[in-house]
Amino acid sequence: MFQMQGGIGQIWQALITQLKADRRKAIALGVLVLVMALLYGRLLLRRGSSASEAAAATPAPVAQGGPAPSQPVAPPITKSAAPRVEPAKENLPARRSISIETMSRDMTRNLFETDWTAFPPTAESMARSRQTHAAATQPVAVAEWWQRLQSHWAEQRLKAQEVRQKLEEEASEFELQGTLLSEPPRACISGRTIRCGDIIGGFRLVRVNAREVTLQKSGQYVRLTMP
Q1: DSSP string, the chain
Q2: Structure confidence at residue 46 (pLDDT)
Q3: So what's the pLDDT on residue 137?
Q4: Is there a contact between 222 and 215 (Cβ–Cβ < 8 Å)?
Q5: Topology (CATH level 3) of domain 161-225
Q6: What tens digit of pLDDT does each residue of 176-219 get?
Q7: Where in the chain are the domains?
Q8: Pick from 48, 152, 171, 190: most CB atoms within 10 A?
Q9: Which residues of the chain fall short of a pLDDT of 70?
């Protein structure tokens, strides 16, 4: 018994020492103990209230041989039956006789046929129909349309030709001095060695062949050859 008490005392002393060393643990432990105490007290109060309610709900036992306690008996509630009002017969609508007949399976008329005589044309619709027919039968000016198309093509060809002449003039200043079909292929143009994809004077080198290269600018291709 003495050893047990000594062991508990040592444990308690060690716990107090640790709590003094770390105040956060001490505060947390205190809050936890307080919450547990509040929960336990609330549980006890709830049990006490439930026990008192059960005792109040249980009737007191009647002593043997004694008269039973008189309790007020409520008088029976009687409901007075409301008088039934029957509707006046003269206000009811008269019943109609319904006869059921079998439909005939033979078609008497074509459902997809339209009787146009039931829709006589008006003066406005006739005038609109004449205008539509005249516009549809009017000859199309094919020659004029073809002439406009040809003039447009001529303008486009003239513009493309002007752009190409300008590019050829710019490319004429270059001098192809040599080609090297290696990986990647290279070309020496006007003393500058470039590879495919490099740009010189606004032109991009796109292809290198033996003694020949292809340059690109503004969607046009220009070819340079060695003399």
Answers
A1: -HHHHHHHHHHHHHHHHHHHH-HHHHHHHHHHHHHHHHHHHHHHHHHHHHHHHHHHHSPPPPPTTSPPPP-PPPPPP-PPPPPPPPPPGGGSPPPPP----PPP-S-SS-TT---GGGSPPPHHHHHHHHHHHHHHHSPP-HHHHHHHHHHHHHHHHHHHHHHHHHHHHHHTT--EEEEE-SSS-EEEETTEEEETT-EETTEEEEEEETTEEEEEETTEEEEEE--
A2: 82
A3: 59
A4: yes
A5: SH3 type barrels. (2.30.30)
A6: 889 988 888 899 998 889 999 899 888 999 999 988 999 988 88
A7: 161-225
A8: 171
A9: 1-7, 49-111, 135-141
Report CA-CA distances (Å) from 121 to 124, 132, 133, 134: 8, 16, 16, 19
Other C-beta atoms lying within 10 Å of the C-beta of residue 213: 25
Q: In angstroms, what CA-CA distances link 80 with 40, 74, 77, 83?
A: 57, 18, 10, 9
Burial code (b: 16+ CB inside 10 Å, e: under 16) for 196-208 equals eeeeeeebebeeb
